[in-house]
Please model this.
Amino acid sequence: MRDTQDSSQFIRFLRGTWTLLAMALVFATGIFFSALSLRNGSNGVEIVALLLLGLAGGGLVRGLVRENLVAVVFIVLVVGECALLSQLSGPWSKLWPVLIPANAIGVMVGNVVRQGLLESRPRISRDVWVINGAEEPRTESARAVSLAELSSWDSAKSGRFRVERNGGLFEAIGNPVMGFIVHCAAKLQEESDWRILGSVEGGDETEIRIPSGPAYAPSGVVVDLETAQAALQGFFHYRGPDPGLKWTSGEQVLDLKFG
Model:
């Protein structure tokens, strides 16, 4: 049973993050060929080495450094790397600009991996409300706190908004200005239980803000703050999706979790 749960978690992690990982690969490939072109086709090995160094450095910064210090440590790391490289002889002193985007991509990849590891970590189920990692046993207090936090939440800065209770999960990503994408599940371990608020039908797309930058989703699943708060209120009552609201199920639900 445990193996089946681990496999399901890993599959959900891949389905939710493959687009961001693919974007990182595309960006890194573009940087490689751009730098190679500027060097007239030479120093390919050195460029690859610097890309790997930047990816590792940015990934470690995101994985090991506290959230509120990531930007500062990232700047110090990049400045230090570039200053050191510019003092070396040969092609290295001319290739230091490669490190800047490489480290940025590394931070993005590190954020994706970190989120996946957190979500796949075994959880000890406790019958209390957990609001963005903070426990609150009283329902009324948990409802008030979560509604207040959602009204000022910005996923570009703080990541995914989460409220949990004994296997049930409410998630929102976005901000009050541009809108939210809301996911909900009565049993988060069961892939078939996941729902997304709204409809995926239609060809129009809307931009939202996520930790890795702007993302685009079907306009029907990007809801305003009032609708997201109504879904959150329903979660406190039903411990899952509010049946009075319009939800969508199916494979596309997890594809729109954006890592």
Summary: Strands lie at 129-131, 134-136, 161-165, 168-175, 179-185, 195-197, 205-210, 213-218, 247-248. The chain has nine helices and nine strands.
